[in-house]
Amino acid sequence: MEVKKIDCPLCESPKGIPIHQEGPFQMVKCPSCQFIYLNPRPTEEALHEFYQKYLPEEERSVESWHKMMERIFKRAADLLQRFKAEGRLMDVGTGFGFFLSEMKRRGWEVAGVEISQRALDYARNRLSVRVYPGPLERAGLPEASFDAVTAFYVVEHLPDPVIFLKECHRILKPGGLLLLRYPHTTPIKNLLRLLGIENRLYDLPAHLSDFSPKTLQRLLVRVGFDSCLHFIGGYTLPGRLGKRLCSSFFGNLSEGLFYLTGKKFLFPGVSKTVLAFKRKDG
Known about the structure:
single chain; alpha/beta; Rossmann fold; four-stranded antiparallel β-sheet; 8 helices
C-alpha cells in the first residue's frame, strides 16, 4: 500500500510524536493541538481501492453488520427527532443504507453518499434509497439543502476532516443538525499498553485519526457549528459473544455514569455521539 507523510490535518504542524504502533503503521500526537492521527498514511488512491473491499460481501455478513448497528441507528433517529420531526436527510458514508431506510420509514426524505461501490449498489437496489458516489465533497450537492446530516463511524476514516465538516456545514440549512458517531480509542490503547496487552483497536490503516470529544468540539466550532451536545448514544452488538458481552458491559456502564452525572461525564474509550447545530442566521 502506497503511503505518504503528512503534517497535522488540523493545525498543519509538521511534527508528530509517535504514541502507538500497529504493524507497520503508527499513530502520532500533534504537540501543538494534541490531535492524534496516522502518519505516514495511505495515499487517497490507495485508500479508495482499500475501501472497495472493506465492507462485508456475503448476505449473512451484511445482515450481521445491520444487527450490530441497529441499536445505534435507532438511538440516533430518536435523538434527531427530538429536534426535528422530519425533513431532508443526508447520511455520509451510508454503507448499505440501513440508517436511510430507518429514517425513510419515519417519514424523512433521505439520500446518502458512499465510496464503496458494493455498498452503494446494495442500498440502491435492495433498499431503494438514493445514494451518490462519494466522497461528499465531490457529490456536487446544493448549498443549504438538508435539514440534517449524519455520519456513523466516518470522520475517523477521512484524510481531511476539516474539509469534510465544512462541506457538511455548507449543505445544511440554517438551523440544521449534524450528527456524528465516532470511536474514542486512545484511552483504551493507553491502558492496554500499561497492561502489556497487544491489540489492533485502531484498525490501522482504516482509521486515519482518533478524536476526543474536546478536539471534535473545537473543530466543529471552528468550521461554524454552534451548541454542540455530546452523548454516549448507545453501543453496538457484535456477533461474537465475547465482544458482545464487552460492548454491553462498557456500554451500559458508560450510559449509567453519563446520566448519573447530569450528562456531563463521557466515559473515556467508548464510542460517542455529538450533535452540532448550524446557526439559524447561517
